[in-house]
Amino acid sequence: MGAGQSRSSPSDEKIFHNETPISFSPDVVNTLADRLDSSEPTQERQSVLDAHIRSRIKDELEVLKRNEEEIRQEIQVALEKENLDKEKQLAASDDGNSASSVTLLQDLEDIRTKIEKHESKKQLSEHPEIDTTAKALAECYQRNKTTPLICWSEVNKFKAAVAQLERQHLQTIP
To answer: Where along the sequence do coiled-coil regions lie (predicted)?
Structure first.
């Protein structure tokens, strides 16, 4: 029923014959022949292929970097967990006699702050002879900016005060 109409029969084919001859220039024929003979792609095609390969390599490299970073983070978390577990086991087995790394770091930080406070308290005010000679030397240099060699006596006084303080300090060291 109707199936006969949709089928094409060999007698329905139409063939057209070209009455005008088609000719190509020898340059076009040679170029096409060279392309068929050559197994290498054209320069444009090669640049497109190279760009595509570079983009795929770049994408794959980014994926690998992300995977590597995820793995590093997982390893770091696992190591931290393992270290904390070991510290807990050591603390439990030693009945609190051993300190964890966190408490040791806090103790070190406390000691550092105490040392800094001690160092900041050490002033030249404990040694007035150094303070006065240093001020006299600075004033001399301010007065004699163009001829600082005039201040040789203040320099010698300052050196003597520093040497005396060094001797005192060396005597206090056991």
So the answer is: 54-81
